[in-house]
Amino acid sequence: MADHILNSWYVAAWSDEVTNKPIRRMICEQSIVLYRISDDQAKALADRCAHRAFPLSKGRMLGDSIECGYHGFTYGPDGRCTKVPGQTTLPERAVVRSYPLHEKDGWIWVWMGGDPADADPSDIPDTHWMNDPNWASVEHSLQVDCRAELVHDNLLDLTHESFLHKTTVGDDYIYEYGITVEVDDNVVLVDRLMPSVPAPPLYADTMGIDGNWDRFHATEFFVPNNLTLHSGITAEGAPREEGYLIKVLNAITPIDAHTCWYYYSFARNFAVDNVEATEQLREGLGLVLEEDKDALEAQELGMQTRPGREFDVLIAQDGGVAKARRIHQALLKKEAKEREAKEPRRPGAPANTKPIGAAARRQAQKAAAASAGRSAAESTTSAEATSTAAGGR
Amino acid sequence: MWMLERANSLSAAPTMPDGSRVLAANPDSAERGDPWRWSITLHTSPDGVSTSVKTDESFVVHTVELLDETHCSTVLTRCTGDVIVVAVKTGKALITVPDGPWQRRIHPGDSFVLEGEVNETIRVELTGTQSTATVYCLTPTRTAALRWVP
Ligand code: FES
Ligand SMILES: [Fe+2]
């Protein structure tokens, strides 16, 4: 299992994906079942029946409970087993993990950390633009076959727009402008100001503008998983708040070491009621995301086949990327330390893996032989001891 | 281009048992094999706070400007390819760009690195009482520009 930062809220689904029909999501290599109970509250449980590990997402809802589709163990919304077919006594260990869940602005967030007491919804970044009548948004989500960190890097270093998105966004001048990087606690901000440039073609039509503008991009990365891109254009020299503004919310949720979910929302404060513009953007941005997905998956293959002694050649423009990676490492280390403090490793402790079938039989035979050998050795030792003692006298 | 890493940043270098901490360095990550060029360290001891610079002298020369109550502000034009690092030892300083839209207040332990291939001008001004800061200017001897390697 790869290392994942668990003490964080991760986007698990769009609100409208979660209904009273259970669905399965893999997050940080933990399978989770998501569903809604009768008061519309969304719930997240480990997607693994305590009985014999069958996915609960393949079961069915019975009122507010979820019934396992294999042998009928039934669980309440808190993960406790409420019914076992054929007996009235509920096994004490018949409980599945319940994950703290918070629903906000169209996203379902799940706390992956081990201690639910640490799950504070106020740690979730601002996403109100998805749900604000003064903004119109376009959404996409996709599974990308690359490690989550590559998506983070992609969003922190938008110079790739000049090359990768030549035919879509077509911003061929971006890399010519320098960035500023600010790092505070676990947040990295990479800001690029492009004064007096043409409006980006993808938006110029929607905005109904031409001529030169001050353009900016500021990626705010809340390490480990959420990146808000504050971007827009303003009249030359005008304050940013007065511009045509765009907020792109990017929630990157690891599935495993080489795959992630990418939840994307692009909100704008202009042409808010223009349905046609929304559809054009939906299509255009979908293409841009496909270009990113193709590149990221190709890059993942490059990473997997790269010899261990070769490293990225980072340049000044990658300052935000490098700082974010270091924060990621620091968070991983911190969690590993905390875990170790909670459950100190017992060297030589037996693994909790019971062999089955032929392996179990082999182990039983070995154990019998060893125990016979030990008895023989024990008698030899006693005999020697006796004879030595006898000889000594 | 500039980088501002706050003292509380989770990416900041750790403080050593002797109270020293690397504030800024080039390369900033040593493990990838980029050649080392310079580093600036903040030292904290019961006697106070100081900073020091180390450079690969075959590659970089440097100048130091101290700011204190007798000389509390400076306007710096970073020439093409130079790197400027500002470190506050006590109190606080305000960094502004005369014709630009931003300003930042920096404190002890924060690290501010200004670099790039076009000239730019900043103003550093101590604010508050008993503030002190050091400004390092690093110039490459063998290449046109000393680019910061993250
Ligand atoms: S230029 Fe970035 S991967 Fe080649
Ligand atoms: Fe992209």
Percent in helix of chain B: under 10%
Number of helices of chain A: 5
Estimated structural class of chain B = mainly beta
Look at the structure and give the mean pLDDT of chain B: 94
Q: Rough shape of chain B?
A: globular
Low-pLDDT stretches of chain B? none
Mean pLDDT of chain A: 88
Strand order of the largest sheet of chain A: 11-17-16-15-14-13-12
> Distance N terminus to C terminus of chain A?
62 Å
Number of strands of chain A: 17
Unreliable parts of chain A: 349-355, 372-393
Q: What compounds are bound to the protein?
A: FE2/S2 (inorganic) cluster, fe (ii) ion
Biggest sheet overview of chain A: 7 strands, antiparallel
Number of helices of chain B: 0
Distance between the termini of chain B: 13 Å
The helix/strand series of chain A, from N terminus to C terminus, equals: EEEEEEEEEEEHEEHEEEEHHH
* Approximate strand percentage of chain B: over 45%
* Proportion in β-strands of chain A: 25-35%
Structural class of chain A: alpha+beta
Walkthrough of the structure:
The complex is a heterodimer of chains A (393) and B (150). Chain A has 393 residues and is α+β, with helices and mostly antiparallel strands. Helix content of chain A is 27%, strand content 29%. Chain A is built from five helices and 17 strands. In chain A, the strands form four sheets. A seven-stranded antiparallel beta sheet of chain A has the order 11-17-16-15-14-13-12. In chain A, strands 5-6-7-8 form a four-stranded antiparallel beta sheet, with no helix packed on it. Chain A has a three-stranded antiparallel beta sheet with strand order 1-10-9, with no helix packed on it. In chain A, a hairpin with a 6-residue loop joins strand 6 (65-67) and strand 7 (74-75). In chain A, helix 1 (148-156) runs antiparallel to helix 4 (319-342). Mean pLDDT of chain A is 88; it is low at 349-355 and 372-393. Chain B is mainly β and 150 residues long. In chain B, 0% of the residues lie in helices and 56% in strands. Chain B has strands at residues 2-5, 20-26, 38-45, 48-55, 60-67, 73-78, 83-96, 103-106, 111-114, 120-140. Chain B is globular and about 40 Å long. The chains are: A alpha+beta (393), B mainly beta (150). The interface between A and B is medium-sized, with 30 and 27 residues. The complex binds FE2/S2 (inorganic) cluster (FES) and fe (ii) ion (FE2).
